[in-house]
Design brief:
Keywords: Membrane, Transferase, Transmembrane, Transmembrane helix. This protein has 219 residues and is mainly alpha-helical. The protein has one domain. It is 47% helix and 9% strand. A hairpin with a 5-residue loop joins strand 1 and strand 2. It starts with a helix and ends in a 5-residue tail after the last helix.
Length: 219
Amino acid sequence: MSADKSLKFYQDYSLIQTSQPNLSKQAEQYLFYKRFMDLVLATIGLLLALPIIGIFAALIVIETPGSPFYLQERVGKNGRHFKMIKLRSMLCNAESAGAKWAEANDPRITKVGAFIRKTRIDELPQLISVLKGDMSLIGPRPERPVFTRQFTKEIRGFENRLLVKPGLTGLAQVNGGYNLSPQEKLKYDLEYIQNLTFALELKILLKTCKVIVTGEGAR
């Protein structure tokens, strides 16, 4: 990250540069191979997911008017902003009164939206973000800029989630998701970052498959 971009990052999120821990050399090397796995698996996954995305996009439009896709700015690795795409699971005017932290049993969620959230189908278009390099298959879920700034000020160490690319799924998502507070999610995210290994990622991936099939622990 250049000096100018680094300065903007710390100004945007009120971070103290010396508070940022460094990833181990082993973790840095693993991230290189992780990117290769992301490209292969995301390509295969997107090809398989296209019919599913098409079907549920149609169901979303049938239930509520508006675009079936939802494009939103999120914060990625090192504080870089990017546009994340999802299948829309809420009413089109869900944030007419301003940004709101998503939670379990959110009244803004549609009937189709409740199903695609429970099964993670709403996340499938994010495979595009993985191919672009904005995201990884596994990592901390990307937050919106407004919440990243808020939680960075309120929760010590929250900015450390930005050491790695955000993911479609993560340790926090298979251990409670929407039922977790921001502090609890941070605990799981930092545990993931501090123990970044193939074994841990495989465990998260298998748990994610279990969530999709059974709906237990869905975020």
